[in-house]
Amino acid sequence: MSFERITEKSSLYNDLEKKSVLEILTEINQEDHKVADAVALAIPQIDKLVTQIVARMKKGGRIFYMGAGTSGRLGVLDASEIPPTFGMDPSWVIGLIAGGDVALRNPVENAEDDTLQGWKDLEKFNITPLDTVIGIAASGTTPYVIGALRDARKFGCLTAAITSNPDAPISQEAEIGIEMIVGPEYVTGSSRMKSGTGQKMICNMITTATMIKMGRVKGNKMVNMQLSNAKLVDRGTRMIVEELGLPYDEARRLLLLHGSVKTAVDAYRADK
């Protein structure tokens, strides 16, 4: 099949500047409704990826997100949320963006066009064949990501691609292609919109499912979350109250003593 760049197709809406704010917002929302359905169609590929990630992570493997621009920022965002949410060390899920951390806030000219730089960035982390490299590119053509996936696959890493175009070049370089076809953007070519929303949903699915299977969730609770503010201390305390039936103050004391809900509950039960 030939490569069709749907992300560059003209918007289904025209004369945007002549519309009222209410019309613009309503039409954007209508388009956003398409994203979840597009992601749902990709679940079999996401399932295949997560299953293999978990098996590798249990042996010490890590997840690396690779992207440029919006795609890179979303990978970094998802990676940055794993330590506070699941209590995992930041070295387990790592987000890399073309142009480095400065590109999180400002565009770095030509950074995404270097086919060799992605692998160089991965090598800085002493990458191993147990690691998983997930390339994110709405267009499916970003050289930085394509080069990284190509070299990572040759090295023996598990590779996956998240894109919004069918049969995209990035998919051809990865073992698992996750193609989320959301259609043309409301503003033509602005893949920070539906494509970006879908990318975030998929990244959330990948890491959340992985962390659950890695034992970082109990029931439906974030029992390993970092206690980084008063809200989270209160949430953790209430989890212990519910789990052990202790008074609030005693549950809070246990939580602060042991540093996580899971450790506090396990320690309490070990003493009984």
Which percent range describes the beta-strand content? Answer: 5-15%
Helix content: 40-55%
How would you describe the oligomerization state of the chains in this entry?
single chain
Secondary structure class reads alpha/beta
Which stretches are poorly predicted, pLDDT < 50 over at least 5 residues? none
Total number of β-strand segments?
A: 5
C-alpha end-to-end distance: 64 Å
Shape category: globular
The major sheet is characterized as: 5 strands, parallel
Widest β-sheet, arrangement of strands:
2-1-3-4-5
List keywords for this structure.
alpha/beta, 9% strand, globular, single chain
Overview of the molecule:
The mean pLDDT is 95. By secondary structure, this protein is an alpha/beta fold. It has a five-stranded parallel β-sheet with strand order 2-1-3-4-5, with helices on both faces. 50% of the residues lie in helices and 9% in strands. The chain has helices spanning 21-41, 43-57, 69-80, 82-86, 117-123, 143-155, 169-173, 194-213, 230-244, 248-258, 261-271, and strands at residues 63-67, 93-97, 132-136, 158-163, 176-179. Helix 2 packs across helix 8.
